[in-house]
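Hello forum,

I keep getting stuck at the same step: I have a sequence, I want structure tokens, and every attempt I make locally crashes halfway through. Rather than fight my setup again tonight, could one of you with a working pipeline run this one for me? It's a single chain of 134 residues.
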Amino acid sequence: RTKKETIKATYTAAQAQTRIGEAFSGISEEMGDVGLAIQRAEDKTAQLQARAGALDELLASGALDDPSGLAKDDLQAELDRLSGGSDVELELQRMKAELAGGSSGQQAIEPGTGTGSGEQQGQQTRQDPRFDKQ
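Reply #2:
Ran it on my machine without issues. Output:
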């Protein structure tokens, strides 16, 4: 019976020493579980960030359509910008024609239908390569 109590006390002391050692070194089972949970969370976050980046690249390249219609690629934005400028140019031509001699605004807007500066501007517009709506 004494030997049994001695073995039991030795076992309990060994358990206590092991727990103390694990606590100081940070390798206890509980700490390992926490460390694994943190590592899994970091891995999942990195995976989601990579997925979001890949989706952004696919949307930007035009491989995927944006159902919201909010995002435009650079080329479409540039074309929209250039086509918007043609209205300003037409308005400027109309105003110049009015100042030049009271010719009708319709002749200045529709190149090739009038005489004088409106005709010359229309020919110049046809000769210059343009990327706006025609």
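Residues 113-126 have pLDDT under 50 and may be disordered. If your local run keeps crashing, start a new thread with the error log.
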